[in-house]
Amino acid sequence: MVAVTVLLLAMVTFIPGAASEANVDRQPVDDPTAPTSLALLPLITSSDFVYLGAFRAPYEDHAGNPLTWGGYALAVNPSASTGATSTGLFIGCHAWWQRLAEIAIPSAANLSATAALRQDCTDVTEGRLDLVDDMPNLGGALVYGGRLIVSAYGYYDADVSQTRSHFASSMNLAQAGDVVGPEQVGEEAGIVAGYMTTIPEEWQASLGGPALTGQCCIPIISRTSAGPAASVFDPEDVGRRNPVPASPLLHYPLEHPLAPEDAQNNLFNLTTQIVGMAFPPGSRSLLFVGRHGIGPYCYGTNEECNDPVDPYKGPHAYPYVHQVWAYDVLNLLAVKQGQLHPWEVQPYAVWQLTEMDAVGGASIAGAAFDPDAGRLYITEQYGDEPVVHVYRITAATPTSCQQPMNDPGQHCLHLPLIAN
């Protein structure tokens, strides 16, 4: 049996310009019950991330609805493959209206390429979004079992009244009358009503389900997670069980934050945002993607805090970076088996996605992982126009894929070729 580790981080100040990947010390604890084949799987590192380029989302849909100031609730649609040339992305349209559209992934990832529109901006909840809470926002999306699963959260749930969070509908956005929800998932909406991803098949029996849902860092921090959060659930249960069972594997209540919320550090403060997660097959890494302020922490106006990016009064820590938080799933398995609390787990590494931002703004909006291709799609608001960045996670490339001659990394043949 291979010992699992709890990753303890000495809280030191993060210095901008320092090494791109910060590792932490490890302290062995009791072994979880896990097949040796899982314990021997590799951990993803920053060197496994290969940047393939970026393309633009359309400016508007066929009806003139804008996609500008969108990019949230991103989800890969693997069933959208047509002629072995493209696959689709569900993507949030302008934030004022909280609608989803679907775009095609172009064959070339460069800023001169604009994705074709597959489906217009649509209210996927069919008028039910207000049943979630006041000021509702779409939090995440996931294609699973032939359905589109969508989560939503109340933006300012000061009285912690939200209980329901997840919807399910057809992937055909024009089809009406098929929406179910919102349904309750787990016991705390504030830690589940956001990003989602699937669990690799080899881990599902040990972790107790096929998918993860989470939420972090939204307003009213006491009702959400002060650091990345993830709970195991079965998307098939949405609309079929009430409430939908969910088992937290990672969650940082405010009394146990990942790091001091009002201090400069490289893990978490009140400027942190988490917008997506990825669980690459063939690894034991759960990766979270988001934005983090690495400068001196300050609460006040942008002038008081010397922040040229964020114009509002509130928490500041300029400059801001796009960042990955990497967790060893063996530690999450220890939480599942009752050996650790969900807030006792620390990431084994964090690193910056320097290809995405060079001016300190880090305007990330959403992220979605395609396990078939080993590709991570991340939206950034480039001005007011969503740009989709594409990374290949090389250690996650499935063995069933073949290698095209003009792509040095593997990807499945039914997916688009994006040149380096």
Q: Would you give an account of this structure?
A:
The chain has 3 helices and 25 strands. The chain has helices at residues 36-39, 201-207, 329-336, and strands spanning 5-8, 21-23, 25-28, 49-56, 75-77, 88-92, 100-104, 117-122, 136-144, 147-154, 166-170, 180-183, 196-198, 211-213, 230-233, 247-250, 273-278, 285-293, 298-300, 314-316, 320-328, 349-352, 364-370, 375-382, 385-393. The strands form 7 sheets. The protein has a 5-stranded antiparallel beta sheet with strand order 2-22-21-18-17. A hairpin with a 6-residue loop joins strand 17 and strand 18 (285-293). It is globular.
Question: Can you summarize this structure?
Answer:
By secondary structure, the protein is mostly beta strands. The protein has 3 helices and 25 strands.
Give me the secondary-structure topology.
Layout (H helix, E strand, L loop, with lengths): L4 E4 L12 E3 L1 E4 L7 H4 L9 E8 L18 E3 L10 E5 L7 E5 L12 E6 L13 E9 L2 E8 L11 E5 L9 E4 L12 E3 L2 H7 L3 E3 L16 E4 L13 E4 L22 E6 L6 E9 L4 E3 L13 E3 L3 E9 H8 L12 E4 L11 E7 L4 E8 L2 E9 L27
Antiparallel strand pairs: 1-3, 2-22, 4-25, 5-6, 6-7, 7-8, 9-10, 10-11, 11-12, 13-14, 14-15, 15-16, 17-18, 18-21, 19-20, 21-22, 23-24, 24-25
Average of per-residue pLDDT values = 87
Q: What is the global morphology?
A: globular
Gap between N and C termini: 41 Å
Kindly provide the radius of gyration, computed on alpha-carbon positions and rounded to a whole number of angstroms. 20 Å
- Order of SSEs: EEEHEEEEEEEEEEHEEEEEEEEHEEEE
- Class based on secondary structure composition and strand pairing: mainly beta
Oligomer: single chain
